[in-house]
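Please check this one:

***
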Amino acid sequence: MSEIYFDHAATTPIRPEVFDAMLPFLKEGYGNPSSIYEIARTSKKALERARDQVATALGAQPGEIFFTGSGTEADNWAIRGVAELLKPKGNHIITTAIEHHAVLHTCEYLAKNGYEITYLPVDDQGIISLEDLEKAIRPETILITVMAANNEIGTLQPIEEIGRIAKERKILFHTDAVQAVGHIPINVSKMGIDLLSLSAHKLYGPKGVGVLYCKKGVALKSFIHGGGQERGRRAGTENVAGIVALGTAIELAVSELEEEAARLSVLRNKVIDGILEQIPHTRLNGHKTLRLPNNANVSFSFIEGESLLLLLDMKGIFASSGSACTSGSLDPSHVLLAIGLPHETAHGSLRITLGRSSTDEQIEYFLKELPAIVTRLRDMSPLYEDFLKRRA
């Protein structure tokens, strides 16, 4: 079987329709949208059409969409922007223990600069308690930032309920929706979201372009200085080709969402059930049903996730053991530790994230090869040997 890509949470390939949409703006459509002549006006028109596409996909207004260089930049802008904007009102921010590092590291930066951060715990399936959230709110709380869907274990948070609580308490609400947009329904108006981050390369678009949705009336200051682009709030000549690609990608993703989510959920459940039924001493990480339709995260006792990935790679299967942004770290996943896994079990995790190219045949091949790989690694594991001796 040809190479099997099971790491769509890390990035996605550019789909043909998206590539075709962006290609003219890498060739003849090179005009700077800030200029006034014809090829510049063509770029400007394409940029604003993409803004309309993103706004429609999110249930927002075009004037609330700001293009960025990445989802990480959008997270930074949202959190640091609110901190600066509302510093006279308060210095307290609420987030969770399982956020992406784009949020966690931004909060750590603010904590070193006079802000107080509350990290809400999660249960063993990765979901926060709304009661804990309400108890954490103080008079000086200025922002709640909770991701819509976890990038490692796929668990979905009760975003609409969080939005309701934030609105009742007159607190701004930001959600990192990088993994969620295009995979589950997101409507910023219905869900009470004031700020939202997303990234093109999780939607079969190119790397290097993202979006910050900022609700009208939330007057964030410029994050990058030096020009009047993005209505004076994000300087720098726009990545027109990338933005056009993002507009096309998000429009396609939302139009196909219901059908594709249903298809991927069936494949995801086949992965989960197949692993748990065939291989002993395994556990599903994250909620069984309240999870992204394409995410399966399983921990295998007595083995190292890195070795598992290397052996899968030799079989032409590309997967992950967690977030791609921390793949160089030897530390166990902060997400898996937060849901209660011991260090040694957290090290033996496997994340399978499916996509448009995933098929039933690929799943069957994966489930055929995986048990032998796990057995091979356990046969070499001193931890497994000790476990068997204790049972004897």
